Amino acid sequence: MLTELWALGAWDLAELVRGGQVSCREVVEAHLRRIDGVNPRVNAVTVTLERRSLAAADAADGALARGEAAGPLCGVPITVKENIDVEGSATTMGVLALREATAATDAPCVAELRAAGAIPIGRTNMPEFGMRWHTDNALRGATVNPWSPQHTPGGSSGGDAVAVATGMSALGIGNDGAGSLRWPAQCCGVSALKPSLGRVAQTGERAAGPTPFAFQLLGVQGPIARHVRDLRLAFGHMCGRPGGDPWYAPVPLHGPPLPAPVRVRVVTDPDGVRTDPQVAGALRRAAEALADAGYLVEEGRAPALTRASEIYTQIMSSYGRVHREQPPVETVASPGFVRFWQTYEPIWAQAAGEQAFDPMMERATIARLWSAWMSRTPLVLAPIRTRPAFRVGSDLDPRWLADWPATMRLAVVVNLLGLPAVAVPVGPADGLPHAVQIIGPRFREDLCLDAAAVVEATTGTLTPIDPR
User: Fold this and answer.
1) Overall pTM surpassing 0.70 (yes/no)
2) Per-residue buried b or exposed e for 48-86, using 16+ beta carbons within 10 Å of the residue's own CB
3) Which CATH number belongs to the domain containing residue 407 in this structure?
4) How many domains does the chain have?
5) Domain for residue 328, yes or no?
6) Domain for residue 40, yes or no?
7) Is the bond leading into 327 cis (omega within 30 degrees of zero)?
8) Which pLDDT value is given to residue 210?
9) Which of 9, 103, 162, 423 has the most CB atoms less than 10 A away?
């Protein structure tokens, strides 16, 4: 029996289109049908761009019929999170008041993917303002984890993670300011790439408004996929347009080869935080896969991890706002988000630790420590979060939420230092998927992807799946 088109990855779909075995329209229609059949059960795709995606598919098929060259992503359906601009579609950020905030142009990474032949077919759900680790809002409602409706799909790129995990999209385009690509990947059993700071332009020249400094420094756009090679393919076509991003750096996608064996440091003890046995088991399986492939794997502790988490919190708290005076949260957000934020705000404030005289000066000190630490062992294998996907509603309980910042230290340090990291699943346990992250030196996504591909080759892929 032939594999359904919606079950294939981006690489395979592009090959079929280039080889003339399927048309772009057939690929897009297959995914639109999959959305019709699956999305009512998971609520991941918020808007279907049916008319425009079919028109784009027909135009691509016409170009191929005229003998024009197919782009590297020709006919590949993608979904885009609702805080990334897609021309003619609302950039809602999951907020009711922004439901009509239609974008005049594509974000730079979306424009680059279109230029490579990708076809946006839908927008995906996110928590309000991207400020929660569970995907729910008053505008679109809650997104359901296809592995278990009782557990979170993660956030804030939870809609894209679910869309990819269920075969509604071949690639999801989201962003990561505090693990927002990697955490949903862990919850949903897919792969994700959080690129280095400056790799992918955040905004175009015609951005609707200013971007707070914290989001310029800590947040990046990146892909979600079912296969590591699809992450590599998408990433290679997200980096070419600077837009108006002052952090953009046109750095080669591949760095110099490292002498063998490449060293990998496994961090199992993030400054004394208990690692769940299932998460520890996932790390162990990934470490064994890398060791069997010839990597030199050793355990170690990450430097200044607690202080890095505190400095991250201080920068986000002080410089994550557009206006000096913020409106009361209850005037702009849903009751669910208000309840979450009232629960989390004192925990967040405590997580900032002792106030730094100059947080950016301390950031530079921590960056030097990590650079020296990684100079001998360039790859770090670590948990994304030290616990698996939580039960829906847990993040509204202050006792449960109290240690959240500590469990996410190894996610946010990557954002603080602008490093690349790849989330890769390593298998299910107790009915839930588990994943690890591979962190590399800045601008060495290639090393992270190489190692993630080794893990994937050993452990296999977990998706697509039908909702359970």
Assistant:
1) yes
2) bbeebbbebbeebbebbeeeeebbbbbbbbbbbbbbbbb
3) 3.90.1300.10
4) 1
5) yes
6) yes
7) no
8) 80
9) 162
